[in-house]
Amino acid sequence: MENTTAMTSLRALCIAAGLLVLAHPLAFAQKWEVGAGGGGSFYNAKTISSPQGSVDASFKPGFAASGWFGQIGDRTGGELRYTFFKNDMELKGPGGAFSMSGRAQAIHYDVLIYTNSRQAKTRGFFLVGGGMKQFSGTGEDLAFQPTGHIAVLTRTSQWKPLLTTGAGVRMALSKNTHLRAEVRGYFTQAPNEVITPVSTGEFKGWFFDIVPMISLTYVWE
User: Fold this and answer.
1) Closest Cα to residue 36, out of 88, 86, 84, 72?
2) Which pLDDT value is given to residue 7?
3) What digits encode the pLDDT tens for the residues 50-71?
4) What is the maximum alpha-carbon separation in the chain?
5) CA nearest 182: which of 212, 204, 203, 152?
6) Distance CA 28, CA 93 (A)
7) 76 DSSP β-pair partners
8) Residues 149-204: pLDDT tens digits?
9) Distances (CA, A) of 186 to 44, 84, 134, 195, 212
10) Nearest to 172 by CA among 65, 83, 72
11) What percentage of the chain reaches a pLDDT higher than 70?
12) In degrees to the nearest 10, what's the CA dihedral of 22, 23, 28, 29?
């Protein structure tokens, strides 16, 4: 059921992004761009509490890679983006620590608001958007885990709604090549099927992933 819901949400996101591109008020006076970049991926940690005790649930520091297709207007723009994340998962508590390799992927549409006109060679911007993010445990799913009386890491996948925000700056290296430096925030509810509380354990709240990123883009009219 969850996979069906996730795929429906992804299709709706793609359709909505396409409509936003077509309906953009600057659709006939804009530049287009395609780009790719990478950087770090740094999550906050959460606590899973139960009558048996508590453990810290976290994603270890890792990396992110992203590619997108978008439009650049005078003061606004938009981009449909795919981002891949590689972060191992860890549970740490009184019984010890247990880690499992993990990854995530996201598809999202972001609206960019520029601080100056597109004639400038250097432009600051803010962004906000949303989409869906899939968390996946990819390591060995052991029957015994040191924190297994409170929570376990699982070899499974789970989709979660995603909010994005951030800020950055872009610099024109040439007529068609731009350099972008930005810091992005990816916000989701805790993936409680990938990191699973046991019995009466409780795992909720927001995970945020801070992603500093450097990118190169190709721009045309």
Assistant:
1) 84
2) 54
3) 877 888 999 999 999 999 999 9
4) 62
5) 212
6) 57
7) 113
8) 888 899 999 999 999 999 999 999 999 999 999 999 999 999 999 998 887 767 88
9) 11, 12, 12, 18, 11
10) 72
11) 86
12) -110
Q: List the structure tokens of 13.
A: 């996101």
Structure tokens at 90: 């860890």
With residue 58 as reference, give the H or E element that holds it.
Answer: strand 53-59
| Contact of 29 with 176, CB cutoff 8 Å | no
- The CA distance from 113 to 123, in Å, is 10
CATH number reported for the structural domain that contains residue 158 in this entry: 2.40.160.20
Residue 36, pLDDT score: 98
Rounded-to-integer distance, Cα 171 and Cα 122, Å: 4
Question: 161-181: b or e for each residue (b if 16 or more CB lie within 10 Å)?
Answer: ebbbbbebebebeeeeebbbe
| Integer Cα distance of 178 and 146 in angstroms | 49
- Nearest CA-CA partner of 158 in 202, 106, 92: 106
Structural domain of residue 150, as residue ranges?
2-220
HSE-up of residue 190 (Cα within 13 Å, Cβ side) = 19
Label the pairing between strands 96-100 and 195-197: unpaired
Domain total of the chain: 1
Q: Which of 126, 130, 131 is nearest to 115 (CA)?
A: 126
The one-letter amino acid code at 155 reads R
